[in-house]
Every structure is written in structure tokens, then in C-alpha cells.
Amino acid sequence: MDMSPAYEKGVKETCHSHAQVVFDKFHVIAHANQAVDEVRRAEVRLGGAGVWEALRQSQWLWRKNPENLTEQEAARLAQIDQKSLRTAKAYQMRLVLQDIYRSPTTTVARHRFWVWIRWVRWVARQVPKHLLRAMVKVADMVENHLAGILAHWKWGVTNAFMEGLNSVFSATKRKARGYRSTPHLITMLYFVAGKLRLPQH
Fold this sequence. Notes:
Blueprint: H1 5-15, H2 25-46, H3 51-55, H4 71-79, H5 86-100, H6 106-126, H7 133-144, H8 146-155, H9 160-176, H10 182-193
């Protein structure tokens, strides 16, 4: 599950000691992605020499992994002076956090998470005007939920399939601007995602 306090409360009240909470890795990375964007917007607001020009219309660049960038996006990113941008530092932090999930064991992952947490906090202290505050919040979140995050290595489960299905359902609802009744909505969801064998005539 994700790190919603309501979900955690529900598990504690309903499952007691019989459930092992596994915090979904995609939600962890989603928090980091959101933090990168918060850093970008804060940096744009504060301005500075060349900052607006460098970050203008760059929102989607920072959301992608380097290997998923198009040729044009990679060229744009290469033109940005990343050494002086806090957004680029936040992006690097997100990529390192993501790479921790490639760790072979829980022990290695725990060590790398703690190194990452200390690194983020140390870098943030060197940056003026709290520009990396959003990334520090992610580091705090990782520390506070570390047991559930590390449970990923024991169970290897994610809710990525359900998240993808939910995305398809949400798109279906948006396209129709809503449905007159619940049965109509359910019928359309089966039609879109149910892999139904439709008659050819």
C-alpha cells in the first residue's frame, strides 16, 4: 500500500499483528518525483541568472529516467547547466533513490537507504533558502517508514498492476465526462479493460 495514514490506521485496527505492511516502491518514487517538481517550481520563483531560461518548460524532463528521454529531450537536458541548478541535484537524488531498489538484499538496501537519507540532509544544509526542503521531506518519509519499505525485499509485491488499471479507469471516466448510472460505467470499464471477446459481425 501507499503511505496514507488512513491506510495504516485501517491495517492496525483490522489486521492487528497478522499483516506485514509493504510500502509500494512506486509510491516511494512518486513522492520523490513530486519533490523534484516542487524544487523546480521553487527555483523558478526565486529566479537568478539564467534559471528561468534553463527550467522553462522542463517539467517533463525531470520526470523521466535518462534512458527514457527522447533524442530531443536528451539534447535539451544536455544543454542545461545542471551543476548550478538545485532541480538537477534533486533529480539526481531521485535517480539514486530509485537505484536502491536494485539492491540484491535487505541488508544492502537498508545501508543504502541510510546513506541516501544522510546525503540528502547534508546537501540540503549547504543549499540556501531551503530549496531542497521537499527532498528532505522525502528523506524523512523514508526514515519513518523504513521497515515497510524494506519489506519489499522479503515479499517482492507491488500494486503496480492495480495502479495501471486505475489509470485506465480514470481515463475512461474522463473521456465520457461522467456516466448517467453505475451500470453504464461498469459496462464501459469491462469493455475497455476486460479483454472481452467481441463478435466480429
